[in-house]
Write a sequence for this structure.
């Protein structure tokens, strides 16, 4: 009887290890992206890093600092990967604020705003 119980427990445990249900879901959201004004260049972000419009970073309301996200422009299907290092105000209608470099890569500098899909890729473990 003990052998059957042990085998049942092991099979249940291995099922959890190797099945798709044990993989945490990827966070995907849609919203509006904007980009930082040039006046913010050189200022400190909420994470303490120095802001540069030449980097590939962004601000989000909730994602922890160091989280990498894939941002896809829903209007033209261009993509960019950015690291979250700043905070958007909780009342902001925007989903993400990007550097000028990221906005150029997504081809929305002229319009100023665009609809995007944001997919969490990874976050650094501090």
């Amino acid at each position: 009887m003990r052998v059957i119980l042990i085998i049942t427990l092991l099979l249940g445990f291995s099922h959890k290890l190797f099945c798709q249900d044990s993989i945490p879901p990827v966070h995907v959201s849609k919203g509006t992206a904007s980009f930082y004004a040039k006046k913010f260049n050189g200022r400190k972000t909420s994470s303490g890093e120095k802001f540069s419009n030449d980097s590939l970073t962004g601000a989000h309301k909730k994602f922890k600092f160091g989280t990498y996200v894939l941002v896809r422009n829903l209007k033209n299907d261009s993509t960019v990967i950015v690291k979250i290092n700043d905070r958007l105000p909780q009342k902001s209608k925007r989903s993400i604020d990007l550097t000028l470099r990221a906005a150029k890569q997504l081809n929305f500098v002229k319009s100023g705003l665009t609809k995007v899909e944001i997919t969490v890729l990874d976050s650094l473990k501090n």
The mean pLDDT is 83. The first strand starts at residue 28 and ends at 35. The longest helix spans residues 2-18. The domain at 26-123 is CATH 2.40.40.10 (Barwin-like endoglucanases).
